[in-house]
Amino acid sequence: MESYFFGCYRRILQSGARDESRYDSPGDEYFARLGETDCAEETEEREEMLTGCDRLVRDIQKFLRRHFSYEDYRIFMLRFYETGSSFRTIARHMGEKTSVVTRRAQAMMESVRANRKFIARRRLIMAGEAA
């Protein structure tokens, strides 16, 4: 049985070496550089396409991520952006009480509402839409 395994292993290695010698690969550096330029260009394009409202949402998400725990951030994202799940459903999946999850989300909402920069930007966006 062992000799059969070693024979198969040798054949696999030999066929792999033969297949590798057929093609010329540009190397890992090529793909790393290619990825960097694509990412930078895509980021710039996406940034240009964002509306004021989209930028505000992105900045609120960054703010929450910086100032609250990852678990709190996930609660907020699941409830308000991603799935729209109820606090009861989120609490059930987390193994927490609904009141605890609700309180944590409300603390984040209050923090966003109290942020003067977000208030000013929201007013600018609303004024732009009214015009």
Structure description:
- The chain is mostly helical.
- It is 85% helix and 0% strand.
- The protein is built from seven helices and no strands.
- The protein has helices at residues 2-22, 28-49, 52-67, 70-82, 87-94, 98-114, 116-130.
- The longest helix has 22 residues, at 28-49.
- The radius of gyration is 26 Å and the shape is flat.
- The model has no long low-confidence stretch (mean pLDDT 76).
User: Helicity, in percent?
Assistant: over 70%
Strand percent estimate: under 5%
Instruction: Tell the overall outline.
Output: flat
Compute the separation of the termini in Å: 81 Å
- What low-confidence regions span 5 or more consecutive residues with pLDDT below 50? none
Please report the number of helical segments: 7
SSE order, as H and E? HHHHHHH
Rg estimate, integer Å: 26 Å
The average pLDDT value, as a whole number, equals 76
Say how many strands there are. 0
Largest sheet: none
Structural class designation: mainly alpha
Set out the fold topology:
Layout (H helix, E strand, L loop, with lengths): L1 H21 L5 H22 L2 H16 L2 H13 L4 H8 L3 H17 L1 H15 L1
Helix pairs in contact: 3-7, 4-6, 5-6
Keywords summarizing the entry:
131 residues, mainly alpha, 7 helices, flat, single chain
What is shown here, in short?
The chain has 131 residues and is mainly alpha-helical. The protein has helices at 2-22, 28-49, 52-67, 70-82, 87-94, 98-114, 116-130.
